[in-house]
Design brief:
elongated, Nucleotidyltransferase, domain 5, 12 helices, alpha/beta, 5-stranded mixed sheet, 359 residues, 39% helix, two-stranded antiparallel sheet
């Protein structure tokens, strides 16, 4: 390769009247190189060969197909790295990220101010709506404020009976209950904010009874400020990008549609092996590693509330933190049956064994 210094020397020697052959002998290059440079108006520019074969080249078609199946959503590079490693990829994470960056420009990230809570003080709860219509799919998400350990359960409705059942399953998974649980303004928790003055909310009577039984205080986000419960909101995005989108894309490639049974069987494994074992971006620790430090309240005894029975609507005055709270009790349906995890695992194994199915 001829350096810029050599080209400068060629031009200087030519200005001193030296012949092309003498210049070539002086700088150590071919006569034609001297001639072509002096005839050109600019110096030659060299570019990296972008078509060279790399360790990632054999997996480019696979990556494009996976992203096409997920469109308009996006599968993160961390998920695709696990997949192509299982297919034999031996390259680095940075090589994959660089390639994915070329496919999708990085968007600016809005800065978020987070407030840390003491161990055992708070859980943040939220619903994630994945699918509407005649075949709905929702996810109940709960994240412990201190350790960031999360629990997820996929359901087909967001009724109060389902909400209570999901809470019980989350408490069992965490091994206890925090002193407070933070919600947005979902109707299965709060019927009307500030119904009788500032801070005097009208809660759902059945859910308030359940909270009292379990020993946690209901806390509400400020209206239109979902980032008040930013820990679970951030996890919701992680769940969608790193679990839901890749799984739906995989099933779509096999001609299948994700249902709650399959989602629950897969998400429990994902929580145990990936989500609660990753290095959390804020704490720089694994959530599961911090779970023993949570100082949770003991698990409550089985709740025997009468929300399953049909009752007429009525109002009840309740004293909470020296402020009156009016609660409307709603007519509720029977709590849906919950199957043990072994049932989900057997069903998933049957799906896996179907010819042409990849789960």
């Amino acid at each position: 390769m001829i350096t810029d210094e050599v080209y400068v020397e060629i031009e200087l020697l030519r200005k001193h009247g030296m012949s092309l052959r003498k210049i070539a002998e002086e700088v150590g290059c071919a006569v034609n190189t001297v001639r072509s440079h002096l005839a050109a108006e600019t110096w030659p520019h060299y570019q990296r060969n972008t078509q060279r074969v790399t360790k990632l080249s054999a997996f480019v078609d696979y990556l494009c197909e996976r992203q096409a199946a997920a469109h308009p959503a996006w599968i993160p590079a961390t998920v695709l790295l696990r997949e192509i490693k299982a297919l034999g990829y031996l390259g680095s994470h940075s090589q994959l990220r660089a390639y994915m960056h070329c496919l999708k420009p990085t968007l600016p990230v809005e800065p978020v101010v987070r407030f840390e809570t003491a161990p055992g003080k708070q859980t943040q709860v939220d619903w994630v709506e994945f699918r509407h219509g005649h075949n709905p799919l929702y996810a109940f998400c709960a994240t412990l404020g201190y350790s960031r350990v999360s629990f997820v359960e996929f359901v087909t409705d967001m009724k109060v009976e389902t909400l209570i059942a999901c809470h019980q399953h989350a408490f069992d998974a965490f091994g206890g209950v925090t002193r407070r649980i933070l919600y947005d303004n979902m109707k299965t928790v709060v019927i009307e904010r500030d119904a009788m003055g500032d801070g005097a909310h009208r809660f759902h009577a059945g859910f308030l009874d359940y909270a009292s039984h379990c020993g946690f205080v209901i806390k509400l986000c400020r209206p239109y400020r979902a980032k008040t419960k930013g820990k679970v909101e951030r996890f919701n995005g992680y769940l969608r990008r790193s679990f839901y989108v890749p799984l739906v894309a995989q099933l779509k490639q096999a001609g299948l549609t994700l249902d709650a049974v399959t989602a629950n069987a897969q998400v429990r494994r994902w929580l145990k092996d990936i989500a609660n074992e990753r290095i959390h971006g804020t704490t720089q620790m694994r959530p599961a590693q911090r779970l023993p430090e949570e100082c949770l309240q003991p698990l409550p005894s089985p709740w025997r509330g009468d929300i399953r029975a049909a009752r007429p609507q009525r109002e009840v005055a309740v004293e909470v933190t020296a402020r009156p709270v009016v609660v409307i009790e709603r007519i509720a349906q029977v709590l849906p049956a919950q199957h043990p995890l072994a049932v989900y695992e057997r069903l998933l194994d049957q799906i896996r064994n179907e010819p042409g199915v990849a789960v």
